[in-house]
Records
---
Amino acid sequence: MKWNSIRSSILAAMAACLIVGVIGTLMLLRHNFAQNSHALAVESVDGAQRLFSILEARETAKMVDVSDALATNRKCATLWPRATAAACWA
C-alpha cells in the first residue's frame, strides 16, 4: 500500500469523525435549547397564573371592603340629620 493512500485514508477518517462529532454536538445543543425553552415557558405560565390568582384575591377583598363602606355610607346618609358619628359607624 502506498504511503499517500494510507495518509489520505487516515485524514478521511479523521474528517468523518470531526463531522460526526460536530453534528452530534449541534443536535445536543438544539435538544437542550428546546428543553430549556419549554421549561422556561412552563415556569412563566405557572408564575403568571399564580400572580393572577393573588391579584384576583386582592381585588375581591377590596371589593368586599368597598361594598361594606358603601353600605355604611348609605346607612349614615339615611340617619345623617339626626344621628351622631358613633351611630353611623356602629
---
Amino acid sequence: MKTCPGCSFLMSDDQDRCEKCATEAGRFELLDPGPTSETGIEFPDRGGVAVMAPPKVAPLPEAVRYRPARKRLTVSALALIFIGLAVAVAALGWAGHGPLADQFGRWGIVAQRSEAFPEDWRQLTDPSQSFSIEMPIGAGYVYAGVDPAVPTAGLMVGAEVDPGTGSTMTAVFTDFGLGDAGLVAYDSPAGVRELAARFIGLQMTGEQTVVRDAVVPEGFAVDTVVLSDGASSRVRFIFAGDRFYALLTSGPDKFSAELDAAHQRLLGSFDPRT
C-alpha cells in the first residue's frame, strides 16, 4: 500500500493515483480546450479550480457631458451690465428722452424737452395794446369775429400760435358786441361763467368737464377744461376792467404734462393794461 500523490489517500502499489483523483483527472481532460490568450481561461493539469481573468473595460473620460455646459454670468459681469443700463437711461433723460426726462426737468437739472410747442418763448403785446403775454415763438396776431356768422357778436383780438404739432395756444379778448356798458353787467362770478359758456359754444367743440371759479389780481376768473376726441383744452376766462379775456392751451392727450406746464406759464405771464 502507498499514498496517492494527489490527495495522500491510501492506494494499491500498482496504482498511480487513487480512484477519486483518477476520476477528477478524466473529467478535466474532457473539458479542457487548451489554454487561450483571448479568454484568459487556463485549466490545470490535475485538480484545482478554473480561473477566469476579468474582462478589460475601456477607461471612461474624466468628465462625461450629455449637453453643452451653460455659461453663467458672474456677479461682476451682472454688475457691469446693470451699471451700463443705468448710464444709458440717465443719458437719455439728460437728452430729454425716456422715463427720467420729466423728473430731471422738475429737478431743474435739464430743461424739459418740448414736443408740443417750441422751447423758446417771447413777450408780445396784442394789437390794441390792451394786454401783454409770453407765447412760444411763431405766434401771430388774431383779429376775427367771435361768431363769423353773426357780425354783431363782436371781435376777438389777441395772439395765437400753432406749431403744427396738433397743439395751439391762444390769448384774446372780446366784448361780444355788448360794448363797455353792456359788458359791465357781467362783472361777477356768475356773469363770467355765463360769458365763458357763450365763448365755448361759439369757438370750441367737446365736453366741458371742469368749471371752477378762480380769484386773480385782475378780477373774476373761471378755469375750465374741455375734452374732445384724444385732445383737451385748458382755458382761463378773466373779466378785467371792461374786457373779457380767454387764455387757451390745447393739444393731444399725449402732451398732457407739457400742455399743463405751458398753460401755467401762459397764465403767469398775462398782464392786462387796464
---
Amino acid sequence: MARRRKPIINYQNVAHQFLIEITYLIILCMTGNLYFPLPDPTIDSISDLLDDFVKKLTKAQKGGSQEQGEMQDARKLLVNALRKLGLYLDKEADGDETKLRSTGFLLTHDPIPSAKDTFYLLHGKNPNEIYVVQKAVDKAVSYVFMYYVGENPPVDPTLWKLGDVVSTHRDSLKNMETLKKVWVRACAVLRKEGMQPWTQPLYIVLG
C-alpha cells in the first residue's frame, strides 16, 4: 500500500525567493478553492504576511542589522502561518491527494528548489496545470515559455510548442498532458537586446 502523501509544511530553511514564490502559488490556488472554503489562517492574512515579508526583505537588502532583524521576524511569521495552514489542509483533506494538490503546497517527495535554482516547475491549481517560475530578469519586457511532451527534451528545436508569452516571470501553463513527462524551457525578452538564452529544460509529471 502506497504511503499517504502529506503537504510539506516546514519552509523554515528554504531560500527567500522560493518562500515568496510558493506562498504566491498557495494564495493563487487557495483563493476560491471549493475544497477548502474556510481555511485557517485565512488567505487574506497569508497575503498580508507575504506583503510585509517582501517589503522588509527589500529594506534588509539595503539596510543594516535592524532591518535584517525585522526581515527575519516577518519571515518567521509567514513560515509559521504556512505551517498552521498546511496542518489544517492536511486534516481537512484526509489523505485526498487531488484536494492537497489543489492547494499549491508541495507534497512529500516533491523536490524543493535550492537558492541556486533560477527556474523551476510546480504543480498548479488544477491536475493538468503547471506553475512555471523563472528568476526575474532586469529590464525584461516579457517571458516566453515553451513545452514538449516526451521521454527526453527534443534535439530539434522546432518540436518545442509555445506555452505562453507573458509580462511576468511566473505563469501557469494549462491543459497539459498528465502521466507523461512535460518538459518546459523559458527565456526572458529584453527591450533592446531581444530574446535571451533559453533555460535548461526541466520536466514534471502531472497527475
---
Amino acid sequence: MVYNVSLNIGFHGKTLNSYPVIFKTRSIRGISNTIRGELPQFAEFAFKTYSPISQIYLYVVISYGKKSEFFKYFSIKCKNIREYKKYLNKDFEELEELITIESRERKLNDLLK
C-alpha cells in the first residue's frame, strides 16, 4: 500500500510554512524515518522564523487506499521526539552553531552522493 503524506510545520495551531512537505512511502516506518531525518531542517526553519523551538508541532495528513480516499489527520509535538530534544536546551548562539554545522554536513553529503 502506498501512503501519501503531507507535513506542515506549525506553532499554536497556525502553519509556519506556506507549502507542505509532501512525499510517498510504502510503510508507516518510512513516514517515521522521514520525519526523524528531516528534524534538523524543521528546527532550522523554526529558528529562522523566530518561533519557540519547544512549541513546534508537525501537522500530518496521511491519505491511503486505491484512490487515496481514506485520510488520517494528527499532530506531533516535536519536543516529544528523541532526536529533536538536543535542540531544546540551547541558547541562541549554541543553536545557531549546531544548525550551521548540521546544514554544512547535509550539503557535503548531498555533494558526495
